[in-house]
């Protein structure tokens, strides 16, 4: 049976969060860093065998401490990230491949995307087994506009044909690693490659969508942080088994981001 490995990226900074002293993935919600919420999704999923993390090099020691503190025992290793998001993914994939066969299933996930359901993880794995890859998505609920200059509307796609790409995005490690190596021959800086789905699409490789879950937002600014607080409170009120008992978020004020 193929091994299943989650690769979690903790390479982002806190620039858009308007914080200076720490990367955004280490911001706490009621005493627990955002990245720990993300890691727990894979720690608690029975199909996930190991977790690899790519982190800002200067924060690796801190991450090692909190991984131990919160008993994320599936973490196999933590490696330094690269100069960009896609280079960080590439380095992590190479590390996984060193220790595992090419048919190993890898689920690529953001350390600042803390809320995914067990069903989404399971559907990703199932799709990789059946189709070779999986992109978590949700249907677009607002009108999507195309604009080359950011001023004028160049096109309005049909909304029912529009979907929002999320994470995890999942592959066999040999396939996604070969895609990176192919794109790096002509585009070593990954220009306009925003995620693995984009990379596959650029190479003309077929990608398969699976249903993601509402609330699987990527925390990039203070508004996202407060939305996450609301999601956690909602889940607590609807189903106490879905989140930790201490999951009510401490409300940060504007001064926290100044």
Measure the end-to-end span: 50 Å
What is the helix/strand order?
Answer: EEEHEHEHEHEEHHEH
User: Kindly state the mean pLDDT as a whole number?
Assistant: 86
Largest sheet, spatial ordering of strands? 5-4-1-6-8-7-9
Principal-axes geometry comes out as: globular
Radius of gyration: 18 Å
Q: How much β-strand is present in the residues?
A: 15-25%
Structural class by sheet pairing and helices? alpha/beta
Uncertain runs:
14-18, 240-258
Helical content, roughly?
25-40%
Counting DSSP E segments of at least 2 residues, the number of strands comes to 9
Largest sheet: 7 strands, mixed
Task: Please describe what this structure looks like.
This protein is α/β, with parallel strands linked by helices and 258 residues long. The chain is 34% helix and 19% strand. The protein has seven helices and nine strands. The protein has helices at 34-43, 60-69, 85-99, 118-131, 173-186, 196-202, 222-238; strands at 4-10, 28-29, 32-33, 50-55, 75-80, 105-110, 133-139, 163-172, 209-211. The strands form two sheets. A seven-stranded mixed β-sheet has the order 5-4-1-6-8-7-9, with helices on both faces. It has a two-stranded antiparallel sheet with strand order 2-3. Helix 2 (60-69) links the parallel strand 4 (50-55) and strand 5 (75-80). Helix 3 (85-99) crosses helix 5 (173-186) and helix 5 crosses helix 6. The N and C termini lie far apart (50 Å).
Record keyword descriptors for this entry.
alpha/beta; 9 strands; 7-stranded mixed sheet; 258 residues; two-stranded antiparallel ribbon; disordered C terminus
